[in-house]
């Protein structure tokens, strides 16, 4: 086989693989059709899937450690854990992120700074009207919501927000995670009262 034929075959295979990757990735992750955008979108999608997997595993561990099968109690302020995350968990060189997570039996909340935006993710059981409450908290805190993604599986839901940091916002990512966690806590108290 000539060098030209080998190169043509390699490009054809690469294009086929890129088509498959593009078809497996939700369209909002891929901004343009060029190879770099497709691969970048797939990386972001895989990161989000990895995050969902970690959150579901954590939820499973919490559920197995829970002494009673009843409704989740309202977390006390001391049960909220803030975890700084100075580096990407995916081992990609040169990508630095700063974030915090605030976890409770009701919901896991993670906020990461990415450039001039914040990526906010919450994992919880399905609570009617919860996404509206989160949006209200973000708007009250002067964040502009650029993108929302909602994924659910059985009774668990993942809300992912890409939010722009407003000029008047003086909140740290830790404080943002706690603020969003508190809107889940108010729901847990309401459920326990019913």
SSE arrangement:
Elements: H1 3-24, H2 35-65, E1 81-82, E2 98-103, E3 107-114, E4 117-125, H3 130-140, E5 143-153, E6 156-165, H4 173-193
Antiparallel strand pairs: 1-2, 2-3, 3-4, 4-6, 5-6
Helix pairs in contact: 3-4
Task: Summarize the structure in words.
The chain has helices at 3-24, 35-65, 130-140, 173-193, and strands at residues 81-82, 98-103, 107-114, 117-125, 143-153, 156-165. The relative contact order is 0.13. Strands 1-2-3-4-6-5 form a six-stranded antiparallel sheet, sandwiched between helices. The chain contains four helices and six strands.
Q: Which descriptors would you attach to this protein?
A:
24% strand, single chain, 194 residues, 44% helix, 6-stranded antiparallel β-sheet, disordered C terminus, 4 helices, alpha+beta
Could you give a quick summary of the protein structure above?
By secondary structure, the chain is of the alpha+beta class. The protein has helices at 3-24, 35-65, 130-140, 173-193; strands at 81-82, 98-103, 107-114, 117-125, 143-153, 156-165.
Query: Total number of helical segments?
Result: 4
Radius of gyration: 20 Å
Largest sheet: 6 strands, antiparallel
Number of strands: 6
Strand content: 15-25%
The coarse overall form would be elongated
Helix content: 40-55%
How far apart lie the N and C ends? 74 Å
Order of helices and strands: HHEEEEHEEH
| Spans of at least 5 consecutive residues with low confidence | 68-96, 189-194
Structural class computed from helices and strand pairing: alpha+beta
Query: Taking all residues together, what is the mean pLDDT?
Result: 75
Strand order of the largest sheet: 1-2-3-4-6-5
Oligomer: single chain
């Amino acid at each position: 086989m000539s060098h030209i034929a080998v190169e043509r075959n390699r490009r054809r295979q690469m294009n086929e693989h890129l088509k498959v990757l593009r078809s497996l990735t939700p369209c909002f992750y891929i901004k343009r059709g060029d190879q770099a955008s497709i691969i970048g979108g797939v990386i972001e999608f895989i990161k989000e899937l990895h995050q969902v997997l970690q959150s579901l595993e954590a939820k499973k561990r919490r559920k197995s450690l829970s002494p009673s099968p009843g409704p989740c109690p309202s977390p006390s302020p001391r049960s909220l854990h803030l975890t700084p995350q100075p580096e990407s968990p995916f081992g990609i060189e040169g990508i630095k992120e700063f974030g915090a997570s605030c976890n409770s039996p009701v919901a896991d909340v993670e906020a990461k700074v990415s450039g001039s935006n914040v990526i906010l993710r919450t994992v919880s059981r399905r609570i009617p009207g919860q996404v509206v409450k989160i949006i209200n908290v973000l708007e009250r805190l002067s964040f502009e919501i650029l993108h929302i993604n909602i994924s659910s599986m059985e009774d668990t839901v993942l809300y992912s927000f890409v939010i722009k940091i407003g000029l008047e916002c003086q909140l740290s990512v830790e404080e943002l995670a706690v603020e969003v966690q508190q809107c889940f806590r108010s729901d847990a108290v309401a459920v326990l009262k019913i």
